[in-house]
Each structure stands twice: as C-alpha cells, then as structure tokens.
Amino acid sequence: xxxxxxxxxxxxxxxxxxxxxxxxxxxxxxxxxxxxxxxxxxxxxxxxxxxxxxxxxxxxxxxxxxxxxxxxxxxxxxxxxxxxxxxxxxxxxxxxxxxxxxxxxxxxxxxxxxxxxxxxxxxxxxxxxxxxxxxxxxxxxxxxxxxxxxxxxxxxxxxxxxxxxxxx
Length: 168
Hints:
The protein is of the alpha+beta class. It has four helices and six strands, in the order αββαββαββα. β5 and β6 (about 105-120) form a beta hairpin. Residues about 15-25, about 125-130 and about 165-168 have low confidence and may be disordered.
C-alpha cells in the first residue's frame, strides 16, 4: 500500500465515521406531514421533535392558528395517520388543549381546525393550591356532615358525634 492510497482510505474512513456519527442527529427533530386542511386523514412522522415545533408545522400544513403557552414542551416521536382533529388531540394527551373547528366551503362534508390553544397547566404555585384545596376540603366535609345530620334527624336519630345539633 502506498502513501496516496492509504491517505485516500483514511480520508474515506474518516468521512464514513463522521457520517455515521452525524446520522442520528440528522434524524432527530425530523417532522414530515402528508395531507392538508381538507384531507380526511393526515400522515405525521415526528422523531424527537419538540411538541411546539410539531404543532407549528401542523398549523402551517393544515392552515390553523396556534397559540402555544404550555409550561411543558416534551419531545414527540410518532408515526400516525389520523383525522386532523384526532391527530392534534393524540399528540398532546397530557396537555391542556382547546381547539375550534368550522365547516369550510373548500372542505365539503368536513370540518377543519381553525384555532388550537395549548394552555398552561394552571396549577399555580403549590402554596396557593394547598391552601385553596384545604379550604375547599373543609367546606366539603362541613356540607357532608350537614347532610348526614339532616338524614339522621329526619329518621328520628340524634346527630352524629361532632355533628351539628341544630340546623341553621
């Protein structure tokens, strides 16, 4: 083996290694959409793509307005064929998603998506949720006890221990 053939072999091997190393990252983030706003079914292929990007691409392909305000932006890997409305719903089953749809003269006998909102989860800070749910729980327990006392009283029994003794 002479120097020039060895250099060519080494250069080729180097490019091969780089191509193999780079190939997975080229596939990651891939988003392909086949279908349009009037299609009865849309084929979506996404590989390790952020949900917001998948929905942006769907919004462009299906001609709807998107507002993505979620705190979460999980990576999505799917290969689905669905009606457009079902596709959006299946992409974000754990998200707070709202959508409007309408009949469109361009899409006879079909409704198309007009708007999609991916909203924040709405859980707020844990401190507020705990205090609000504690108050609600106490109110619920009070109402349950009033119901029990009323039932017992209507059947001639005294109210349960710790229950109300007279109605308000």
